[in-house]
Design goal:
The protein is mainly beta. The chain has one domain: Jelly Rolls. The protein contains two helices and 27 strands. The chain has a seven-stranded antiparallel sheet, with no helix packed on it.
Length: 333
């Protein structure tokens, strides 16, 4: 998914100096996903109180969205660098096309992970069969040693594990004896967990991981901190056990995210992750050039190949990059 803000903020992100074991709630802000009938997403990462959870650097939560009223998801071709996108649906269906030649459908309960590496472009549209769209779009920052890796695309449908009344699907990393085969470039965890009303689940976790619990439906309490739908509970490194407790009124469904602190400064702007203002500006310039030129024209004149790949023939439009800010913003701690 693209960040469709018309004036995206340039962010220099680091993991905060944490107090071991501390837990707190991040409240989302609403962001329209483009167009006069824009679908609204709820964004909890990044923000001033927290930029990263492990290498997780971007969390959008959307729906249940009646696409007859909003038009659903309509995101034309757009670029990414230095990250992996993680698409996870609860309902609906999204058609994905990218410059690797991938044509895939994102379906509920299936992980679609796209590695941007040095550069890729993709589009996302909800399908005509979709009446209600509901899911999450997440980004993972690639570490310095792997951020220029080759672009790639992976799909995985994890099994559903029944544990103490809970239903658990592990789509990245390992939990409760389940391990995802999908490759990541830093130690990560991603799982969907559903608890019945009033239910609880004790999890053995890696004390070296930071964790985030994104509440999708119902209410959830973690480490004595309660959150409702759309909110993100953050848990710092230190604990070896995590207990999830659902509210008594209804079942609760969450996404559990975790990872070792990235330990690097990253600059996020629009759909790019880099390490400096100059690098982001170069990514933007390259994208603007490639979207305005025929697919078979090389850039630059030295003969270097297209950074973002050859656009699919089905693409009728691509997103222009917003204008960069007039002044460099100070690093955000």
């Amino acid at each position: 998914m693209s960040n469709l803000e018309t004036a995206p903020t340039e962010l220099t992100c680091t993991n905060a100096d944490d107090q071991a074991g501390r837990a707190w709630v991040l409240h989302p802000r609403e962001v329209p996903l483009g167009g006069p009938r824009a679908m609204t997403v709820r964004r909890t990462l990044p923000q001033r109180a927290r930029s990263l959870i492990g290498a997780w650097c971007f969390v959008d939560h959307y729906g249940p969205d009646d696409v007859s009223g909003t038009g659903g998801m309509r995101v034309p071709g757009h670029p990414h660098t230095g990250l992996q996108t993680v698409s996870w649906l609860f309902s609906g269906e999204i058609e994905h096309r990218d410059t690797l030649g991938t044509h895939a459908l994102v379906r509920p309960g299936e992980l679609n992970l796209m590695t941007a590496g040095s550069g890729i472009a993709h589009s996302e549209y909800s399908t005509s069969e979709t009446s209600v769209l509901h899911g999450a779009q997440l980004w993972v920052a690639l570490p310095e040693r792997h951020r220029f890796t080759d672009a790639a695309f992976d799909n995985y449908a994890p099994p559903v594990l029944e544990q103490d009344g809970a239903r658990v699907s592990v789509f990245l990393g390992s939990l409760l004896g389940q391990t995802s085969p999908v490759p990541t470039y830093t130690p990560l965890l991603g799982a969907e967990i559903t608890l019945p009303s009033g239910g609880s689940l004790d999890l053995d976790i890696d004390p070296a991981f930071e964790h985030g619990v994104l509440v999708d439906t119902g209410e959830m309490t973690v480490a004595g901190v309660a959150a409702s739908a759309g909110e993100l509970i953050c848990q710092d490194t230190g604990p070896e056990r995590l207990t999830l407790r659902a509210g008594s009124a209804e079942r609760a469904r969450v996404l559990l995210l975790g990872g070792q602190p990235l330990g690097e400064r990253i600059v996020m702007w629009w759909n790019f992750i880099g390490r400096s203002h100059e690098e982001i500006a170069a990514f933007r310039e390259r994208w603007q050039h490639e979207r305005e030129q025929p697919a078979d024209e090389e850039y630059p004149s030295s003969g270097e190949s297209l950074q973002y790949g050859e656009f699919p023939a089905r693409w009728e439009e691509t997103l222009p990059a917003p204008e960069l800010p007039n002044a460099r913003l100070k690093p955000r701690e």
